[in-house]
């Protein structure tokens, strides 16, 4: 935050606080005659004066509560889900969350319509392991409705002591489900990497302050392995810091615009370009980026740059569509988050509310109504949990027998989806499990396939997909 911005906002709040003490002793007419530079202050002070002089329980309400409430209402009036007042408790929680360690279920959430929407579950967390997805609408937590709730209110309900349980009711495709999550310490590394044959695989879960350093290490490892292609997995990555993703794109690209931002202030009009001095990935190495509905914000900056600059191709589903930049400003121990700019991809497109379409669209098969009913029952009755508890390392024969037993009792979920749920639950308990799954991950499997077939080719310094057209699944 720039010094002049901090002084401006602290000055405004200080003005309100000083005047609030003064206004108690003046009458309505005097208050109405004062506007302090803008007419709206007359309204504000008239209401404030009425509260202090007429509200029956005025002596029980502190001035700072009124002032903070006014600030909160002013920010809410902007109707921007990313602009909000942050109480002392909110600021504390945000600082705690930014360290990467806290007790919770592992979901990035946002306000949408009258409820709370899941932007993305965080990899390797309780919500992720239970199959929560981007776009799920949270209905209630432990029976308490989230209708009309703010993100901060929902977050407080979801967080808690590690090891404690919380029941979450959510809606997906117009069907309500209930799942029980066991809170855990959310301490997730933002970068994972390995080799899949002679292809590099890089998974980025968030863009934090240290992510660029870990990505640099990963890319140097993959380069030293002489990878013939690279897969960057940004699925369910909710974004993060602008500075972090700019540095990371620069590792892949040696020239061209990475992203530009446009705000009201001159200082918010920026264009960031790549430099050949920081490039790590050889420029003849083909890149495939995996995205989905949970790829948001900084993930879309990365994806937009790769797509627009033809540095590689995108596979998966349309991204979330968050093309705005926020800053957090302090007001003493509390503060607020405010949208200060929108960002634009190299081709000049603002994807806010639109998202980025992949070059090759691949979706998971949609469930039938009968399958949705079965899935709801599986969640509610903890069917998979109980099976894994009795069979920590189930054999194929045990899995087959279990699926057939459930079928006989009316379960309509396909064998594919049942096996996928079981494998996901088993993997979640295995610290040595691979970080990728070619058996049930269709998007990753496609990326591996086209790179192995050399179907992402370079021409005049730009990469194109040269294989057969792919129909979305």
How are the SSEs placed, and which strands pair?
Layout: H1 3-23, H2 28-32, H3 40-54, H4 63-76, E1 84-86, H5 88-98, E2 102-104, E3 107-112, E4 115-121, H6 126-129, E5 137-141, E6 144-145, H7 151-158, E7 165-172, E8 175-182, E9 184-186, E10 191-196, E11 199-204, H8 211-224, E12 229-233, H9 242-252, E13 257-263, E14 270-273, E15 287-291, H10 298-308, E16 312-316, E17 324-331, E18 334-344, E19 360-361, H11 369-381, H12 383-390, H13 396-408, H14 415-428, H15 442-452, E20 456-459, E21 462-465
Parallel strand pairs: 11-12, 12-15, 15-16, 16-19
Antiparallel strand pairs: 1-18, 2-9, 3-4, 4-5, 5-6, 5-7, 7-8, 10-11, 13-14, 13-18, 17-18, 20-21
Helix pairs in contact: 8-9, 9-10
Commentary on this structure:
The protein has 473 residues and is an alpha+beta fold. 37% of the residues lie in helices and 24% in strands. The chain contains 15 helices and 21 strands. The strands form five sheets. Strands 3, 4, 5, 6, 7 and 8 form a six-stranded antiparallel β-sheet that branches. Helix 10 links the parallel strand 15 and strand 16 (312-316). The longest helix is centred in the first third of the chain and has 21 residues, at 3-23. The chain is globular and about 75 Å long. 35% of the residues are buried.
Give a brief description.
By secondary structure, this protein is α+β, with helices and mostly antiparallel strands. It has helices at 3-23, 28-32, 40-54, 63-76, 88-98, 126-129, 151-158, 211-224, 242-252, 298-308, 369-381, 383-390, 396-408, 415-428, 442-452, and strands at 84-86, 102-104, 107-112, 115-121, 137-141, 144-145, 165-172, 175-182, 184-186, 191-196, 199-204, 229-233, 257-263, 270-273, 287-291, 312-316, 324-331, 334-344, 360-361, 456-459, 462-465. The protein contains 15 helices and 21 strands.
């Amino acid at each position: 935050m720039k010094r002049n911005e901090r002084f401006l906002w602290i000055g405004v709040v200080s003005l309100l606080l000083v005047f609030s003490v003064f206004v108690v002793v003046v009458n309505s007419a005097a208050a109405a005659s004062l506007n302090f530079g803008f007419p709206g202050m007359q309204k504000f002070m008239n209401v404030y004066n009425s509260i202090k002089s007429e509200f029956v329980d005025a002596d029980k309400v502190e001035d700072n509560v009124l002032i903070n409430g006014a600030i909160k209402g002013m920010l809410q009036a902007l109707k921007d889900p990313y602009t909000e007042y942050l109480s002392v408790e909110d600021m504390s929680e945000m600082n705690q969350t930014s360290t990467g360690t806290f007790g919770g279920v592992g979901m990035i959430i946002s306000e949408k319509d009258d409820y709370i929407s899941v932007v993305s579950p965080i990899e390797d967390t309780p919500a992720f392991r239970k199959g929560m997805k981007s776009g799920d609408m949270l209905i209630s937590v432990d029976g308490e409705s989230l209708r009309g709730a703010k993100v901060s209110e929902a977050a407080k309900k979801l967080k808690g002591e590690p090891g404690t349980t919380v029941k979450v009711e959510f809606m997906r495709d117009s069907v309500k489900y209930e799942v029980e999550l066991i809170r855990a310490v959310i301490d997730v590394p933002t970068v994972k990497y390995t080799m899949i044959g002679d292809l590099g695989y890089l998974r980025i879960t968030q863009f934090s302050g240290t992510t660029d350093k870990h990505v640099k290490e990963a890319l140097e490892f993959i380069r030293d392995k002489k990878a013939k292609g690279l897969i960057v997995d940004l699925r369910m990555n909710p974004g993060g810091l602008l500075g972090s993703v700019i540095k990371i794109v620069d590792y892949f690209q040696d020239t061209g615009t990475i992203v530009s931002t446009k705000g009201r202030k001159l200082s918010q009009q920026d264009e960031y370009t790549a430099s050949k001095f920081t490039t790590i990935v050889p420029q003849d190495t083909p890149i495939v980026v995996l995205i989905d509905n949970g790829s948001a914000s900084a993930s879309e900056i990365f994806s937009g740059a790769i797509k627009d600059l033809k540095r590689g191709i995108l596979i998966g589903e349309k991204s979330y569509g968050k093309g705005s930049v926020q800053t957090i400003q302090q007001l003493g121990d509390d503060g607020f988050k405010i949208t200060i700019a929108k960002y634009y991809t190299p081709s000049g497109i603002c994807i806010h509310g639109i998202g980025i379409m992949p070059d090759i669209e691949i979706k998971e098969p949609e469930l039938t109504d009968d399958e949705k009913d079965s899935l709801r029952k599986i969640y509610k009755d903890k069917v998979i949990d109980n099976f894994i508890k009795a069979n920590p390392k189930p054999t194929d024969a045990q899995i087959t027998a279990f699926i057939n037993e459930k079928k006989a009792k009316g379960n309509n979920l396909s064998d594919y989806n049942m096996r996928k749920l079981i494998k996901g639950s088993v993997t979640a308990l295995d610290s040595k499990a691979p970080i990728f799954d070619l058996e049930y991950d269709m998007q990753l499997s496609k990326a591996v396939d086209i790179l192995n077939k050399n179907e992402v080719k370079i021409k005049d310094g730009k990469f194109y997909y040269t294989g057969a057209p792919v129909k979305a699944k």
